Amino acid sequence: MTDTTPVIEVRDLTKRFGSMAALEQISLTIPTDSITGLLGRNGAGKTTLMHVLTGQDFPTSGDARVFGQTPAENAAVLQHIAFIKESQKYPDDFKPKHVFRTAPWFFENWDADFAAQLVDDFRLPLNRRIKKLSRGQLSAVGVIVGLASRAPLTFFDEPYLGLDAVARQIFYDRLLADYAEFPRTIVLSTHLIDEVANLLEHVVVIDQGRIILDAPADELRGRAAGIVGAQADVDAFATRHRLEVLQREELGGTASVLVDGIDEVVRLDALNSGLQLTPVSLQQLIVRRTGGTLGGADATAAAPLEGGATRAGFRARTRSREGASR
Ligand SMILES: Nc1ncnc2c1ncn2[C@@H]1O[C@H](COP(=O)(O)OP(=O)(O)OP(=O)(O)O)[C@@H](O)[C@H]1O
């Protein structure tokens, strides 16, 4: 691997289970030393992708490279990876102290002091059998291994399902602080998008086995907005700028739309046109993109708003009670 080789490079990867394609012709690159959010609805294909990337499963076709090499049965690659998932299995009589004692055998960068500090932070009982731990305590074991291993490539697959809000915040804080000191590549799969939004530098969204968003988080943050104003003005504006309308609601003569494709010129024009712009969170954008209210096919049909789109058809397709004005 050269300095410029991305840590993860996937080309035209398909993974089938029988006739069902869990991943279909996906391509993506994950930047070195970045925190990437791997997001998507249940069954989207996130865990399947992580299984292929961590050598636990083979692609049906296409190519997945990790540190420039094929990961499956490749010790040189796998020794640099930590994969933390909720369903981690441990030997029956194991206690957390055994997990942390054996971790350095697998992770050459293991930091025992950092692990001890995290045990305190999460108030984890070291001497209780893993089988007897609460769900949150079990999640904490995985999170501690993921952080203190400082593996060059760390996957967290919804690692904190059982953690309470305070413990999750501790995880985010420690992850960010440690990452600043020891940069590495982290891929985090989660459904708590708003909670992790500020952590992410890159976002990949999978939907039904296909990648529908792959972009720097900063780019996504400013890209969507709510636009509120007189119906005719809002419609004319969306058409003029060919904005992709992900959601729309009407009340009296006022329309409120959630659009994707905003830039500085569009923002300025909105303000000059007397329209109100409202922020849209990463979570709102992803929910709308992956089928919230305006479900997949409908959303695609509604956008982009070409000149030929009639307002009546537009209204019929996009009526909704939730969304941009919230
Ligand atoms: N071993 C398997 N055999 C058959 N189908 C599978 C297998 N593993 C996964 N699938 C299917 O592949 C699809 C993708 O599953 P995957 O676990 O990757 O989704 P996910 O995005 O991680 O979902 P979640 O957010 O619910 O964890 C699902 O439809 C799932 O049922």
From TrEMBL:
UniProt KW keywords: ATP-binding, Nucleotide-binding, Transport
InterPro entries: AAA+_ATPase, ABC_transporter-like_ATP-bd, ABC_Transporter_VariousFunc, P-loop_NTPase
The organism's place on the tree of life at top rank: Bacteria
Gene3D superfamilies reported in the protein's UniProt record: P-loop containing nucleotide triphosphate hydrolases
Domain ABC transporter intervals: 8-233
Single annotated GO MF: ATP binding
Keyword Cell division: no
PANTHER family, alphabetized: ABC TRANSPORTER ATP-BINDING PROTEIN ALBC-RELATED
Identification of the protein by name: ABC transporter ATP-binding protein
Organism: Gryllotalpicola kribbensis
